[in-house]
Amino acid sequence: MHKLLPWISACLALFVVSCSAARADEVGTSKSFAGRVGLQLYSLRDLQKAQGVGATLDQAKRWGFKYVEVASLGGLTAAEFKAELDRRGLVAIGSHFPYERLRDDVEGVARDAKALGMPYAGCAWLPHKAPFDEKQCREVAAVLNRAGAALARHGIKFYLHNHGYEFQPFGEGTLFDLLMAETDPQTVFFQMDVLWVVLPGQDPVKLLEKHPRRWLLMHLKDLRKGVPLGSLSGSTDLTNDVALGTGQVDFPTLLRTAQRIGVEYYFIEDESPTAIEQIPRSLRFLESVEW
Predict the structure, then answer these.
(1) Tens digit of each residue's pLDDT (9 = 90 or more) over 64-80
(2) Helix axes 78-87, 53-62, angle to 10 degrees
(3) Nearest to 94 by CA among 151, 150, 48, 34
(4) Across residues 119-141, what is the average pLDDT?
(5) What value does the mean pLDDT take over residues 129-156?
(6) Contact, 194 vs 221, CB < 8 A?
(7) Distance between CA 128 and CA 134 in Å, rounded?
(8) What is the pTM assigned to this prediction?
(9) Which letter, b or e, does each residue of 27-41 get, where b requires 16 or more Cβ atoms within 10 Å of its Cβ?
(10) Which residue of 34, 240, 254, 285 pairs with 224 in a disulfide if CB–CB is 3.0 to 4.6 A?
(11) Nearest 5°: phi and psi at 15?
(12) 246: nearest Cα among 177, 212, 195, 205
């Protein structure tokens, strides 16, 4: 047995090193939560305006992120931005493109997504006349179907990010349910922004379970305690965006459900003026969450 001890010790050492290396790519995970956590770079928009793309990506890297969702390219071309990502070992998973461009220049969107090396391309806002209504919803669905089909031909998955105003009552559900029903489940997917589900008074866990095969991505955001629910405006004060685990969202139940149905990436998006201070707190919360 004693002859095996050096070999066992070497294997254990290798195992520890391997686990440490794997952990380096798993920022924001815990014993229970094993999702791939990234950063929506819009969280650092003020830093990017002040110091540029390089400083923004350096900060994301310092926090331990590997995956990012791209916001502004900061004046760079898609190829130049990709080079900056590559220098830091960061991987762009997706980006939000203007609705009008997805409607009128979807091939250009595909070119940019490919140049950035992204498997997904999304849309964060649907231009509309408030309140969002059935007619607008059906018109939007037709555009999303065309964009999703066109991007699929390039091997890119298209997703829509909810923003709160889509939860107008409709029939036995909401216009968001109609949007789900009127879009092709093979080519149009969704990114759940948790805050923009909770603020309108919806239950994000039930929404995941209601449409389990449509959710690819998630924006992890928490809503300040005491903020009244039920707003369908699609807007709230930026200071209502608080560190994960300090607001109104039941994240253990939400993350357990999201992990079970197969959400692929989870992006912290912190729009508050204190995002630089809050993001590390959000990461510590995710790394301690259990169920």
Answers:
(1) 999 999 999 999 999 99
(2) 40
(3) 151
(4) 98
(5) 98
(6) yes
(7) 11
(8) 0.91
(9) bbbbeebebbbbbbb
(10) 240
(11) -65, -45
(12) 195
- 220-258 CB burial, b ≥16 within 10 A, e <16: bbbbbeebeeebbebebeeebbbbbbebbbebeebbbbb
**Joined tokens for residue 205:** 């866990």
Distance CA 115, CA 78 (A): 6
Handedness of CA 54, 45, 28, 36 (dihedral sign): negative
Task: Report pLDDT for 158.
Answer: 98
> In the chain, where do the E strands start and end?
36-40, 67-70, 91-95, 120-123, 157-161, 169-170, 173-174, 188-193, 215-220, 222-223, 241-242, 265-268
Peptide bond into 131 cis (omega under 30): yes
Cβ atoms of residues 240 and 289 within 8 Å:
no
CB-CB contact of 23 with 282 (8 Å): no
Average pLDDT (5-31) is 54
**H or E segment to which residue 236 belongs:** none
Helices in 25-67 by DSSP H: which ranges? 45-51, 53-62
Q: Which CATH architecture has domain 35-286?
A: Alpha-Beta Barrel (3.20)
Q: What is the pLDDT of residues 229-280, one digit of tens each?
A: 999 999 999 999 999 999 999 999 999 999 999 999 999 999 999 999 999 9
Distance between CA 38 and CA 264 in Å, rounded? 11
Q: Can you read off the two tokens belonging to residue 90?
A: 């960061």
DSSP state of 245: T
In terms of residues, how long is the chain?
291
Q: How far apart are CA 63 and CA 7, in angstroms?
A: 36
